[in-house]
């Protein structure tokens, strides 16, 4: 009986120590996990980027409208740059009615374009490669249709079967053997039936 009591007295302290060590180990195991969990900072919310603003489509259309207005203003300014010319006489206006207009082909592949001046009745714009003149009709004794740009020294001569452009200041023929469709018909008719005057004086 004494032996049992002694053994119990020996076992109780041992069991108490064993239980204490187990509890201490459990506390140590739980503490790092708690520290690790507390050490992690909370995730910051991701800020959303605002979408890039698109340039309004109206700007492009406004720029196009502005360019069109500027082009129209430039054309108006160019027309206004031509001074108002002297009013022509009825005889000069009658000569202007005989002037062939449009694109007229000349020799060596050249061409001349003749257009009415819508601002000044009886006046014409005559232009081609490297030249542009503002001309008015001049009366002649031979009936030849003649236009002149006195400032530039240029002259357009039109007869039944051809026309030519001369610059007297430069001393050059800028275009020769120019024929409108009507003049071309006359030239072909002359080739087929030469005037009798061409044979006068032969054989002398």
UniProtKB/TrEMBL annotation:
Listed Low complexity bias regions: 31-45
Keyword set, alphabetical order: Signal
Cleavable signal peptide: 1-24
Region (Disordered), start-end ranges: 31-61
Extent of Basic residues compositional bias: 46-57
UniProt keyword annotation of Signal present: yes
Protein name according to UniProt: Uncharacterized protein
Organism: Comamonas piscis
Lineage: Bacteria, Pseudomonadati, Pseudomonadota, Betaproteobacteria, Burkholderiales
